[in-house]
């Protein structure tokens, strides 16, 4: 029993390292998007792409490839080689970190297998984890490819949102797996009502994160750099312009309106739900996690407001206050989701035999 617990803790630590690395990877994705770097590397070379250009000839070859893209020809036509090196770095580092995550997974898997730390029931979730990681890499390239043809100067917002949501799914799956190895049955509380609320909140936050990605993909923040109203209106004009589905993913004002509305709804529901949590008792872990979602949701709303208000001061090619707020807004959103996943793990509807 002692050796099993030790193995579980070791595997869980490895998984939590993966969670931390995935959070860094998502943050790097945010920096890549905010600096407009995502289309600087026009090929997907899994092995040879690990190294950046090492001399001037190689740099010029990469720059020539970039100069064939719509983004350069329509938007960044005045870029110098130095400008290109800046955006190339962030996209290269983003890809390098993804490769590093893959290596940490592969070498860790082999080491734990050789040392016989894996229990039989761990193998299937680990296979799913590997497949999710590979799928996420493929979706990332499909996203990049969407911005390399026609008159596209950025990747398609829907593919950006898909890439982000799959990353969130991978993050939550890995985190849940780690929790299952760390948390003892004695830490579980049985509260059907609060758990149902919990699931609703998780689904709403995932939807909200998806709309945040659409906001980013459409660069919709500065279309209404005002608060609390949207350009002076509570319900803006031109809210519905096309069919409902197309409108929901392509109309910037509609996306902006929904993103704000979901924020207020989530804030209200989390505060009510937290009040319910404090009316019940549970384990030490339960008591520690109870206040965290409400703290994070308040911080998240504040960061969202600051992001919107500062979007009027965006300067192309310059990292300023807006970019810091947008990056923190994304990170706190992930932390909020993980806090809700933690409570969902600690609260169950009924005991299972």
Q: Poorly predicted ranges (pLDDT <50, ≥5 residues)?
A: none
Class by alpha and beta content: mainly alpha
Number of helices: 12
Percent helix, as a range, is 55-70%
End-to-end C-alpha gap: 20 Å
- Measured by DSSP, the beta-strand proportion falls in under 5%
**General shape:** flat
Mean pLDDT: 90
The biggest sheet, with number of strands, parallel, antiparallel or mixed sense and barrel status, is: 2 strands, parallel
Rg, rounded, reads: 22 Å
Oligomer: single chain
Describe this structure as you would to a colleague:
The protein is mainly alpha-helical and 353 residues long. The protein has 2 domains: 1-182, no CATH class; 186-353, no CATH class. The protein is built from 12 helices and 2 strands, in the order ααααααβααααααβ. It has helices at residues 2-34, 56-66, 70-74, 81-114, 123-145, 157-182, 192-218, 244-250, 252-278, 284-289, 292-310, 321-346; strands at 189-190, 347-348. Strands 1-2 form a two-stranded parallel sheet. α7 packs antiparallel against α9. The protein is flat and about 65 Å long. The two termini are 20 Å apart. The model has no long low-confidence stretch (mean pLDDT 90).
Tags for this entry?
single chain; 353 residues; mainly alpha; 2 domains; two-stranded parallel ribbon
Short description:
This protein is 69% helix and 1% strand. The chain has 353 residues and is an all-alpha fold.
List the helices and strands and how they pair.
Blueprint: H1 2-34, H2 56-66, H3 70-74, H4 81-114, H5 123-145, H6 157-182, E1 189-190, H7 192-218, H8 244-250, H9 252-278, H10 284-289, H11 292-310, H12 321-346, E2 347-348
Parallel strand pairs: 1-2
Helix pairs in contact: 1-4, 1-6, 1-12, 5-6, 6-7, 6-12, 7-9, 7-12, 9-11, 11-12
